[in-house]
Amino acid sequence: MPQHPDYASMAAQVRSLAEGDPRWLPLLANIAALIAESLDDVSWAGFYLLADGDAPARELVLGPFQGPLACTSIPWGKGVCGTAAEADETQLVANVLSFPGHIACDASSRSEVVVPVHGDGGRGGVVAVLDLDSHSPARFSSDDAAGLELVMRALEEGIRWDWQPGFGR
Ligand code: SME
Questions:
Q1: Are 114 and 129 in contact (CB under 8 A)?
Q2: CA 20–ligand 1 middle distance (angstroms)
Q3: How far is the CA of 104 from the centre of ligand 1 (A)?
Q4: 50-81, pLDDT tens digit by residue?
Q5: What is the position in ligand 1's atom list of the atom closest to the CA of 83?
Q6: Burial status of residue 160 (CB atoms within 10 A of its CB: 0-12, 13-18, 19 or more)
Q7: Please, which residues have CB within 8 angstroms of residue 9's CB and are 6 or more apart in sequence?
Q8: 33: left (phi over 0), alpha (psi -120 to 50) or beta
Q9: Tens of pLDDT, residues 120-138
Q10: What is the spatial distance between Cα 44 and Cα 29, in angstroms, rounded to a whole number?
Q11: Is 150 in the pocket of ligand 1 (CB under 6 A)?
Q12: Mutate to test the pocket of ligand 1, among 42, 73, 81, 109 (most ligand atoms within 8 A of CB)
């Protein structure tokens, strides 16, 4: 299994990216790039964001990512991402083929880790998830999960969710 990166310094990098530009779109795009660049053997790294809508229409919608084309929406509570969002708990899946309801955007995907992201500086509910996939079984360790949670805490503290692009106005 590849050695894990220095997650504390990755969290510090996220803090400094957020100080430079806290708007959610450029920040999430750069963090997806930072994560994809820092971890070996990762086939997809990115975010799904909570879209408007009450249960049962509640869904996660594809956000900034690095990797091949991906599913654009995931029902709340479904798949690894929807489960992490609904349960508000990191999901560490050694073998996606045995995860009930796994959504195979990429048929070669074998393991996955999904970390919830909270609003309101980290004090609010789940507003997004970070998703990492690998073609290798059991690619992610509990150290990776804990490290990525640390990085997401840094993101939650620095990000601004209230920014919107100017189109449509
Ligand atoms: N496998 C995920 C779907 C997202 S993609 O892998 C990029 C899931 O089961 O939620």
A1: yes
A2: 30
A3: 6
A4: 997 676 678 999 999 999 999 999 999 999 99
A5: 10
A6: exposed
A7: none
A8: alpha
A9: 999 999 999 999 999 999 9
A10: 13
A11: no
A12: 81
Q: Return d(Cα 36, Cα 76) in angstroms, integer.
A: 25
Asked whether 131 lines ligand 1 (CB < 6 A), one says: yes
- Tell me the domains of the chain and their CATH numbers: 7-158 (3.30.450.40)
Q: Calculate what percentage of the chain has a pLDDT beyond 90.
A: 85
Residue 100: pLDDT band by 50, 70, 90 thresholds? confident
Atom of ligand 1 nearest to the CA of 114: 10
